[in-house]
Every structure is written in C-alpha cells, then in structure tokens.
Amino acid sequence: MYLLTTRSMRALHLLLWLVAIAVAIPAQAAWKYTIIDYPGATQTQVFGLNNSGEAVGQAVVGTTTICFAYNSKKGTFTVLPNVPGAAITNTFAISSAGVIAGSAGDGSNNRGIILDKGAFSFFSAPGWAYTEARAISNNGRLITGFAADSTLSNYVGLIYDVEDNSFTKFLPSTFTIAQGINSQKQTVGNAQLDANVAYPGAPAGAYGFFRPPNGDIVFFTVNGALVNRPRGINNSGLVTGFYNITGAQRGFVARVAASPAYQALTVPGDDLLDVPGASGTVPEGINESGEISGTWFDAAGNTHGFFATPVRRDE
Fold first, then answer.
1. Which residues contact 185 (CB under 8 A, 6 or more apart)?
2. Confidence band for 245, pLDDT divided at 50, 70 and 90
3. Residue among 102, 101, 90 nearest 141 (CA)
4. What's the rounded Cα separation, in Å, for the pair 186 and 212?
5. Among residues 31, 223, 239, 264, which is most buried (max CB within 10 A)?
6. Predicted TM-score of the model (pTM)
C-alpha cells in the first residue's frame, strides 16, 4: 500500500487548492470585441462582411438613415447611395469584390438590390410582392434571402443566381429567412415551424436550418432554444448567428453535420458571443478568418455594431 508522506500530503493540498482556484476563475474570453458606431449616429447596425474585413450596415443620424460600408482594418466608413425614389434602402451583404446586396422599396413591395461599382441592378422573385437579399457568395454570383407576400405573413427562402437570373425557392412558412451561403453552396437560415415538423413530437418554434447543395434540409436548435437565427456560414463550415432563450439574444459559433435531419446543438461558453455590457448580441456574418460582424443592444435599447475576433488560448 502506498502511504502519503507529510510532504506529499502538502503537495496534494496545494494541488487541490490550485484546482479550486482554476474552477472559480472564469474561462479566458474567446473573443476580442471592437465596437462600431457611425459618427454622430444614435443607432448603428452592422450586417455581413467579406474576407477583407469589410462590412456593410446602416446608421440613423438625426432623422436620416445612412447605408455604409465599414473597413475594419482602417476603421473607416464609406457612405453608400440610396436607391433613387425608394423610401427604404437596406444594405445587408458584401462580396469579396465589394459587390453589395440588400433591398429597396416602401417596406411592403421591396425588390432585391445589387450595388456594383456605384450602379444598382434589381431582382424580384416571380409571384411575390416582397424580395429581400440577405447574403451574397464570395464570388458574387449567388444571393440568398427571402420572398414574402404583401402582408408579410407568408415567406419562402430563396437562392438567386445572378448570372442565370434564376431562383431556387424552399421552406415556405410564416417566417423563413435564407441567410448565409459559402463557396460550397451550403446555406443557413431559419424557419418558423409548426409542431411535429422538425421531428416527431417537436414543439412549434423558430428552427435553424442547414441546406447543402443537394437541397436536403437539416433543422437544428442551439442550447435548447426555440428561437434560433443562424446568420452566416464560412467555407470551413462554421455557422454563426444567435438564439433567444431567456429574453436576450446570445451569439454562437457552431458546426452542423449533413445528417441527421434534426440536431440539438450544445454550444459551450467559449463559442458563445456576448458583447460586454450588452443586453443582446446578434452576429450577422462570419468570414474565412473566423471574424464575426454584428449588432448589439445596450440597456436603453440602442443598437451598436461590433467585430469579434477569435482569441487563441495562448494569447
């Protein structure tokens, strides 16, 4: 039998003490946050970004809504033009070449827009009153988004092929958004599902979906939430977005497998995003470096943009 000596007992006590301290200390933050506020704005929102660290967003200055591009490397803003004659212009996505996608209209009869080198072009899903672009592939050919009726009560996800001027529509529901798309044509988004649709016995809720190029649909939830909003996917298969389980939005980064058809994801703390001091954190895009762009809410309900950069464990 091995007997502990006084010295080994002291060493054991020291080890247990160190372990207790390690457990008590919160894990090292996995993200470095940069706050983005448009100069003079009361509200700033940041949406998609590209591999060069350029993002697009919107800001409210006085009573004017401004669309902008933001260069995270230089910390500079570029004002983007509004669509002439449109009451609302939204800029949601930017490709590697700087092509921007979004929507414009009066709020109930919007068209998808593409802004390339200062010139606008437009597209609309046939048979639908409202079309909105939410994300654009790195090469600028494929645009994801949704179409809806004029009452904004019936939606369908879509992928628009710019070169073919063709639409792929899927997952009709009372609220469907196709959002992120990567170079493998994998798409993520969310859909409002009735009970028993995601899997037998499933409650009704807003489920995330992952759609590979073959058109199969994988539904998923994050940390047990029934409000899930996947927003971006990069070529490594990392998915970002947010979920709501206690009345506040929390960001996440996770991977979704191609099967089974329903997955209940458990995302650990290091892969969650919570901007310090925020009442809600809403990631919108992720690039190949793992950088994430999005919007956060302060205690007064005002919005601000953010960039989140992954922090190595040895930093």
1. 137, 142, 159, 212, 213
2. confident
3. 101
4. 5
5. 239
6. 0.89
